[in-house]
Amino acid sequence: MNMRILVVDDEPQMRRMLKTGLSVRGYEVMGADDGLAALDAIVSWRPDVVVLDLGLPVLDGLEVCRRVRGWSQVPIIVLSVRDQEQDKVTALDLGADDYLTKPFGMDELLARIRVALRHAARLNATEEPVCTFGDLQIDRAHRRVTVRGQEIHLTPTEYELLHTLTAHAGKVLTHRWLLRTVWGPAYEQDTPTLRVFMTQLRHKIESVPAKPCYILTEPGIGYRFNLQG
Amino acid sequence: MALVTLLLLLLRPYIQHSTAALLYLPVILVNAVVSGLWVGIGASLLAFAALNYFFMPPYHAIGITSAEDAVRLSTFLCVAVVVSGLAGRSRDHASRAMRHAAHLDALYRLSQAISAEVELERTLPIITDTTVRLLHVQACQIALRDETGAVVAQACSGTLPTEDTQDTQGWLIELPIQSAGHPIGTLRVGHRESAQPLTPSERDLLQMIATQVALVLERARLVEAARHASALAEANHLKSALLSSVSHDLRTPLAVMKGAVSNLLDETVPWEPGMQRELLTSIDEEITHLNRLVGDLLVMSRIEAGALEQSRSWHDLPDLAEQVLARLASQLAHHRVTLDVPPDLPPVRITYTHIDGVLANLLENAAHYTPPGTAITLRAHECGNTLLVEVLDEGPGFPDVVLPRVFEKFVRGSGSERHTDGSGLGLAICKGLVEAHGGTISAENRVGGGVRIAFTLPCEGPTEMPTAGPGTEGAR
Q: By the 8 A CB rule, do A51 and A112 touch?
C-alpha cells in the first residue's frame, strides 16, 4: 500500500503543488485547508506523515501539533515561512518531528519525509533488543554498546542519552526536550550540562568527534540522531 | 491662689505651716499645666511670699525667725519652681505635638487629594488652596518654569499682592521648588492679616509643601513618559506585524514557485505532460500574483511617502465607469451588474489611472467576495460640492471586528483561502488614492446584507470648468 501524506496548508496553490509533486512519486496525498479539517483527516484517514503549515485559519498549526500529540505519534513535518529559531523550537517542543522553512526544495522535503517514515517504522516495530546504526550497535536488553565490534563503557546518564536519541532517530530533539526526558523537568534550562554530555558521548561513539556522523547538531535548536549513521 | 490663701488663713489655728506649703503645691502645678511655665513660676513666687507673710512667724510680716524656717521656705520655693518648670515644659511639648499632628494631618490630606489627580492643571490649585488655609496667609502662588525660565504652569489662591508673576515685592516668603537638584519653579505665600511672621515649624511645613509640588511634577512627567513609551511600543508592534505580513505574503508565492521548479528539475520522475503543465500553471499564476503584490507594495509606499505621481485633468466619470466595467467584464460575468451613473454629472479633475484603479479594485472585491448571481451596483451622484460614488454588493459583508479596520494595510475581509488572490493592500491603496484627490472613503455593512463602499471626489467650482456647466449637458 502506498504511504499516505496529509498536506495541511491554507494556500490552495501550495496544496496543489505538493499534491502533484508527492503523488507523482508514489505517495497517496490528501489536502486540508485549516486546522480542524487537518485533525479530522488525521483521525479518519490515518496518514503516515503530516506536512503542516503553521499559519492556519480556525486552528493554528502549533495547536494542531499539540492536540495530535495527545493521542497519535504520526510524524509531523512543519512547513512554514516563519524562520525564527524560537518558532522552530516552539513547534518541535510541541511534538513536531521536523521543521522546514519556506521556500524549500522538493528534494529536501522528500528527504525529510523519508526520514520521518523510517522513524515511524522503527517506532511501530516491536522493541528489538538489539539495534544497529552503521558501526554502532546497542543491546538494550544488556545495556551494552559496541562501536565497530568493540564494547565501550558508558555512564548511566550517557547510556540514557544515547538510548533517547536512538529511540527518536531522525527526529530533531530540542535541548529542552532532551533535558526534560533524560534529566527531569527541573533541568529543562540546563543546556551547558547537555553540551558536556554530548561531547563525552561523541568522543566515545564517533570516529571523528569534531565531525560527528551519528549525533548531529541543529544549531540553536537541539540534536538529531542520524539514521544513516 | 487668693482663694487657697483665704482658706488656709481660716484654718491657720488648726494646721502647721508645712501643711500649708504642701497645699500650695497642687495649686502651683495646676497653674503651670494650664497656663505654662512662666505663670507656674509666678505662682511659685506668690505662694512663697504668702507662706512667709501669713503662715510663718512673725505673722503678717516678711521675715524669718529661725534657720529651720529659712530651710523650709527655700526648699518650698525650689520644689515649686522645679515642679512648675516640669509641668510647663510638658504642656509645651504636648501643644507642639498637637500642632505637628495637625500639620501632618493637613499634609496627609493634601497628598491624598493630589494623588487622586494626574493633571498638573488640577493638582496645583489644590496645593495653593491648602497652603492658604493651613498657614492662614492671604495668598499663595506656585509657578513652574522650564529650562529657559519661562512659566509653564502656575496656580494662585487668595488675594494676590500683585498681578505680575515676576514681581517679588509684596510676598512674605518665596521658596524654590527643586526636582533632582534642579530648580524647577517657586512657591510663594503672601502676608498674613495678623502681620505675624511664619514660625520655624510653619516654614518646615511650607518646605514640605514645596517638596510635594516637586513630587507632583515628577509624577506628571513620568505619566507623560509612560504614555509616550506605550505609544512607541504600539507603533513598534504594528510595524513588526506589518513586516511579518509582508514577508509571509512575499514568501508564499516564492515557496510555491521553488517547490514547482525543483519538482520539474527532478529527472528521476517520469513527468506526464499534464502534470508538467499543472506545475507550470502554478508557477505562472504565482508570478502574476507576486508581480501584483510587488506593484501594490510600491504604490502603497509611494502613497505613504507622499510621492504619488499626479497628472490631473478633466474627465467624465460615466465614461470612466464604463471603461472599467468593460475591462472587468469577464470577472463580473457571474454577477448582475447595475450601472447607475447619470450622464449629466459634472466632470471631475482627477488622475485618471488612480480613480480607474480605485473603481476597478472595489468592483473586483465585490465580484470576489460575493456569491455568483448576486447584484453589484455602481452608483454616483452629485452631493453638494462633491461627487459621491458608491459600490454596493449583496455578499456576506465584513465581519464586525474587521469593519473598522478595512482600510488598514494587510487587513483582509475574510480569513479563508480567498485571500491568496489579493495583496491585502487593495482598500488601503484605494483610501490613499481617494485622499490624494481630496476625497474621503468609507465602508459599511448594508442593513439587508452586503457591503457599501462610498467615496467622494470634490467637484471644483463651475468657473474653473473648461466645459459648459451641468445644466446644458442635462438638456441633451
A: no
